[in-house]
Write a structure and sequence with these properties.
By secondary structure, the protein is mainly β. It has no helices and 24 strands. It folds into 3 domains: about 100 residues, Immunoglobulins (Immunoglobulin-like); about 80 residues, Immunoglobulin-like (Sandwich); about 70 residues, Sandwich (Immunoglobulin-like). The strands form 8 sheets. The chain has a 4-stranded mixed β-sheet with strand order 19-24-23-21, with no helix packed on it. A 3-stranded antiparallel β-sheet has the order 3-5-7, with no helix packed on it. The chain has a 3-stranded mixed β-sheet with strand order 4-10-13, with no helix packed on it. Strand 11 and strand 12 form a beta hairpin. The N terminus and C terminus are likely disordered.
């Protein structure tokens, strides 16, 4: 917008000129909390500006800095409101306030059940504000190679307690690290027993049982009790679950046809298992 000023030099001569309006503006670097923020004046038009005044503490008074470029470290996360006022040679002035934004990252993660010989899924739960993650670094605490995935899967070769560390780096140079201990447990032992031989004649059965204080039990037959009755040949398994870990055992049951020769009671009418000799006794008169 232009302002016109008319100056009367004499009764018959007029001289007029216009004043250019100015527009206050500034930019700032996006940094991490605690780092130095750079602010610089981008008001227009730059050649008409006479004075630059900054309000760096948001108190409404422009008396904290007077240069085009300012470096400052703000305390805490804020929010911090910064104002800039510019005054032109013509006396025109303009002011603007902006909220200074900081990048923050808080590393955090969780994981599912940690059992030996079972993959452990690690899940990133980091919180990033006004920034994006540029790198994830996982140390699983067991001497194996680091992982740089966001949500890695890891297999532990032996049971025990491990300190897992996650470091998250951001595009603006922020970084945070968190460490949690993980207890990798042995799978529960399956104590399996049978009421008799696992090979038996067709028509007979055997009872398979597991003993122990498990959270839950699952048989390949679909049953979830401590014992099951098996009458049919097949390959079976049982899984026991405890504290998120499970152990399992496989076993085979065979029902065979009974080929034992049975003597007809026709020849052993008294059922003693011995053949009886039959004869005829004749009496002549």
């Amino acid at each position: 917008m232009k302002k016109a000023i008319v100056v009367i030099l004499c009764a018959h001569t007029l001289l007029s000129f216009s004043l250019k309006a100015i527009e206050a503006d500034f930019q700032f670097t996006r940094v991490c909390v605690g780092d130095t923020t750079l602010l610089w004046n981008t008001s227009t038009p730059p050649d008409s500006i006479f004075r630059v005044l900054w309000d760096l503490n948001g108190d409404g008074i422009f008396d904290d800095a007077f240069t085009d470029i300012v470096k400052i470290s703000f305390p805490g996360t804020g929010p911090h409101h910064v104002g800039l006022k510019v005054i032109a040679y013509s006396g025109a002035m303009d002011a603007i306030y902006k909220q200074i934004l900081f990048s923050t990252v808080t590393a955090e993660f969780t994981h599912d059940y940690s059992c030996l010989n079972r993959p452990v899924h690690f899940i990133d739960q980091s919180v990033i504000v006004e920034d994006t993650a540029s790198q994830y670094i996982w140390n699983f605490g067991d001497g194996t190679l680091y992982s740089y995935l966001k949500n890695p899967i890891h297999n532990y070769a032996f049971a025990g307690k491990f300190n897992v560390t996650l470091t998250v780096n951001t595009a603006n140079g922020c970084s945070d690290t968190v460490q949690h201990s993980i207890n990798v447990r042995e799978p529960p032992y399956v104590e399996l027993s049978f009421s008799g031989d696992t090979v038996f004649p067709v028509g007979d059965s055997v009872i398979a049982s597991v003993a122990g204080g498990y959270d839950s039990i699952f048989w390949s037959t679909g049953e979830q009790t401590n014992s099951i009755v098996i009458k049919v040949s097949g390959y079976y398994f049982v899984q026991v679950f405890q504290s998120g870990c499970y152990g399992e055992k496989f076993f085979n049951i065979t029902a065979v046809e009974d080929n034992t020769v049975r003597v007809m009671t026709l020849f052993t009418p008294n059922g003693d298992g011995f053949n009886d000799r039959w004869g005829a006794e004749f009496t002549f008169w």
